[in-house]
Design the sequence.
């Protein structure tokens, strides 16, 4: 009897909430770590339980209470999706894509829906069927998340790599600093209206070599990092990575557990890395992982808010008022990373430091002087998350800020390091909103002190560590052809057909 009662309870309400959140997570696996979902689950399931309790107390019918709460949950979790789809929609001179109109429609749905549920007696059979259907539906994101986590565990690791002894007491610390989406000077000048000549001159005065004709090998973050951190082209890393490949998760393991990290571990280096909001670039294993104090929403929570009725609170400025937004989190996480970078020279070496700084990449939260300055987003469509005008303004602000800041950081690192360090400052790709060719033009600057290095204007990231290992560790890695290929139909860039 008790077992029968258990199965007739409307568990589907909770399955529905879980499905709404976990299915959103599956669409962003690799962009965020799976663990970021727990707070969202707690904050969503607890009110659902309270709502079930209160509605059941009011109407004294658990079957109807379940259906009412489930219906309201559907309205809640769908509101943001619908709003972002019709935002800026006009009928003649009337802007209909506004909260004031959509709220009215949603309230009407809620009233009519609840009235209809209360009017008709709900059967236990319907509850049992909904429990079964929603449970099966929930299995899909659960299986996808599980397979993703297993793939990460099974990806290449360093179990067989032993930490070596440094070959010299004078080995330099090595800093690999990725400025996400920082484009080449001519690309920025033509598309963004930003002349960064003074920044490049400042780097050269510090002793950097700036490869002024450099391009990325790929125009996408994860595949660009997979290539540079393994100093090879994708098709050389795995037979599965072809021009027809659509599964981006195939490259994730090559970023997280990369050959560069393995090399430095074998050379006896201490590994330092910074946690980012882009979990793919959270490399492993590391000796020191710098994690900024949690502040505001993480990126997944920000996305969840955007796709639910909670967007009403965000657009009303409630979260901004309490500095509890994903924008605020990025702002302070970035400041934390920049501050900690300057402290690493005090750590006993030799050290390898990987810092993926998500500037000048959107989301746009920095003004040119480092103040917090938000740029208005206007669409959920990924290709047009910002208008071109807003994108240019936000990108330029962040490019100016990070250019000025990273120069000072590089100077401080150089001056405070007991052994002259190696510093590589590189864009993983160029700015968005323009042509794919423009996304290939990248910043690429090298500080290789006290060594004769065969650097050249057109060097690409695939040869960065080949040159470094040849120069400082007496290796003999052949330089590869510097190839940048764009194939709009293939996220791998069609590189598979190129002889390398």
Sequence:
């Amino acid at each position: 009897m008790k077992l029968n009662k258990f199965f007739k309870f409307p568990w589907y309400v909770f399955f529905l909430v879980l499905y709404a959140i976990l299915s959103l997570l599956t669409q962003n696996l690799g962009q965020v770590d799976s663990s970021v979902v727990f707070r969202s689950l707690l904050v969503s399931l607890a009110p659902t339980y309270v709502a079930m309790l209160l509605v059941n107390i009011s109407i004294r019918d658990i079957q109807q209470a379940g259906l009412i709460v489930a219906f309201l949950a559907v309205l809640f979790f769908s509101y943001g999706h619908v709003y972002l789809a019709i935002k800026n929609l006009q009928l003649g001179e009337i802007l209909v894509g506004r909260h004031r109109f959509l709220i009215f429609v949603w309230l009407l749905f809620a009233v009519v829906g609840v009235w209809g549920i209360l009017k008709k007696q709900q059967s236990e059979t319907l509850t049992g069927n909904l429990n079964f259907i929603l449970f099966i539906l929930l299995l899909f994101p659960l299986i996808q998340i599980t397979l993703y986590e297993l793939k990460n565990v099974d990806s290449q690791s360093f179990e067989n790599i032993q930490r070596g002894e440094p070959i010299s007491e004078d080995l330099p610390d090595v800093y690999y600093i990725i400025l996400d989406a920082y484009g080449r000077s001519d690309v920025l000048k033509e598309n963004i209206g930003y002349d960064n000549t003074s920044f490049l001159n400042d780097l050269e005065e510090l002793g950097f070599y700036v490869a002024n004709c450099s391009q990325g090998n790929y125009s996408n973050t994860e595949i660009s990092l997979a290539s540079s951190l393994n100093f090879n082209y994708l098709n050389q890393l795995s037979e599965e990575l072809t021009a027809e490949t659509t599964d981006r998760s195939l490259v994730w393991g090559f970023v997280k557990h990369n050959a560069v990290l393995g090399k430095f571990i074998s050379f006896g280096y201490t590994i330092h890395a910074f946690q980012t909001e882009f979990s793919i670039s959270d490399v492993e294993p590391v000796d020191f992982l710098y994690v900024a104090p949690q502040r505001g929403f993480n990126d997944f929570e920000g996305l969840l808010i955007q796709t639910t009725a909670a967007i009403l609170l965000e657009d009303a400025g409630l979260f901004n008022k309490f500095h509890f937004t994903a924008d605020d989190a990025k702002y302070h996480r970035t400041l934390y990373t920049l501050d900690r970078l300057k402290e690493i020279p005090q750590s006993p070496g030799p050290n390898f430091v990987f810092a993926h700084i998500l500037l000048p990449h959107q989301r746009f939260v920095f003004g040119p002087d480092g103040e917090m300055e938000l740029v208005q987003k206007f669409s959920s469509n990924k290709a047009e998350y910002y208008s071109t005008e807003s994108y240019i303004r936000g990108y330029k602000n962040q490019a100016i800020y990070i250019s000025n800041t990273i120069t000072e950081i590089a100077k401080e690192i150089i001056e405070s390091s007991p052994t002259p360090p190696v510093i590589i400052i590189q864009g993983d790709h160029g700015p968005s909103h323009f042509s794919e060719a423009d996304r290939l033009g990248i910043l690429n600057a090298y500080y290789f002190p006290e060594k004769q290095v065969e650097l050249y204007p057109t060097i690409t990231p695939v040869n960065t560590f080949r040159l470094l290992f040849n120069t400082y560790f007496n290796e003999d890695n052949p330089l590869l052809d510097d190839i940048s290929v764009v194939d709009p139909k293939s996220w791998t860039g069609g590189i598979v057909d190129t002889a390398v």
